[in-house]
Amino acid sequence: MRIGQTSFAVFASKLVGSALGFVATLYFARTLGAEVLGQYALVLAVVAWLSLAGDLGVSQATTKRMSEDEEPSAYATAGAITIAGFGLALGGLTLLFGDGVNAYVGESIASLVVVLLLSGLFTSVTSAALNGERKVHLAGLLTPVGIAARSVVQIALVALGLELVGMLVGYAVGGLLVGVSGLLLVSVTVVRPRREHFVELYEYAKFSWLGGLQSRSFNDVDVLLLGVFLQSSLVGVYSAAWSIAKFLTLFDSAVSSTLFPELSRADAEGRGQSVAGLVEDSLTYGGLILIPGLFGGILLGERLLRIYGPEFVTGASVLWILIAATLLYGYQKQLLNALNGIDRPKAAFRINAAFIAINVVLNVVLIATVGLVGAAVATALSAGVGVMLALYTLRSEIAFAIPTGEIARQFAAAAAMAGVVVGGETVVRTVIGLNHNFATVVLLVAVGAATYFAVLFGISETFRSTVFDNSPL
């Protein structure tokens, strides 16, 4: 498998899907306002945490065991059975305590939470099987399909006046479509697993589940706690800023999802040098998009959030901090991905535990005292600690070089881009006289991206080689 091409295919798929989701979110923000958007973010955060409890690392364990090419059908079936059992049990508990869920969100949506939970777990099962078969590109291609379906249904239902309920129903439809499509694409069949298959999944998942908890902690702890301390409208503002920061993680996520089965297979075959090379590649390209995104968030934060509506501009103060947090977390994720890929889930477990504890404590303290900015700062600080712990741990397992030169060149190209964007904004405002905010943002982002990649292509031999090596020509 040509890893560069696969990573780009996954990234392109995620990019198309996120663009469609971005358009839908803009529509919701302008039509429904920050309060309903905040409620929507709270529901998705609750579902995400329930999904974590319904998975408990089993999907990643399934991918890991399937990628080792020993009885993949048995492992896939065992994983599906386990997750189905967890999901049904959690769905029942959610309905039992539905009044508490409804009170937290502010709407009667407990039954929809169950539907979202089950559809999400179904999708995780099929995605795990596709990744385990090293069909990462196919799993990635399903993303825009699901988001497109979700967005169309959501917009239609919101236009009919269903508001939050319409958004949640559309989200469930998109998830079910991805799950069914993934099921049709997997090659494994349903077989009767033996006890040892469940045991092997458990042996891996008992440590890897905390990686999912760490991811949820990074993505949702701040949102959940903001829902406790602040009103829904401010949660909506914060979630809008988060959506921009997360958009920039698409390539980073594509790299990690593409490399995991490759790392796992290389380690299983005893190819230590290949493992080290893959780790170095992941660190080289983990910040490829996030680094210029950080500069862009600092320079264009207010303009970006003004697209959502005037009430969202207050989130500009946290946007660049959240992007910095995602940059640090992106490197941490690549390092932990490598630890899990070489079958060291226990080491990853310890790092995840430390990260979660720090993240929760800092969020509680700083949200209560500083508010929105406190949530962003807490997330960034915990990510910084996490990446240092992950780096120290992985270097004790694998001898690899940190590509400081390539990372420095990416920062240099981003700095050049920033200069062009600052000058371009002045020209657009004073010479051209363009007063349309959205058009200005699109123009500046396009010019900035072109500048960044042109400069990086010129100063980085590694980047040039990667482009040429993975070119279809």
UniProtKB/TrEMBL annotation:
This protein's UniProt keywords: Cell membrane, Membrane, Transmembrane, Transmembrane helix
Residues passing through the membrane, by range: 7-28, 40-62, 74-97, 109-131, 138-162, 168-191, 223-245, 283-300, 312-331, 364-391, 411-432, 438-459
One Pfam family recorded for the sequence: Polysacc_synt
InterPro entries: Poly_Biosynth_Transport, Polysacc_synth
Domain of life: Archaea
Coiled-coil blocks: none
UniProt membrane topology term: Multi-pass membrane protein
Listed GO CC annotations: plasma membrane
Subcellular location: Cell membrane
Protein name, per record: Polysaccharide biosynthesis C-terminal domain-containing protein
Organism per entry: Halobellus rarus
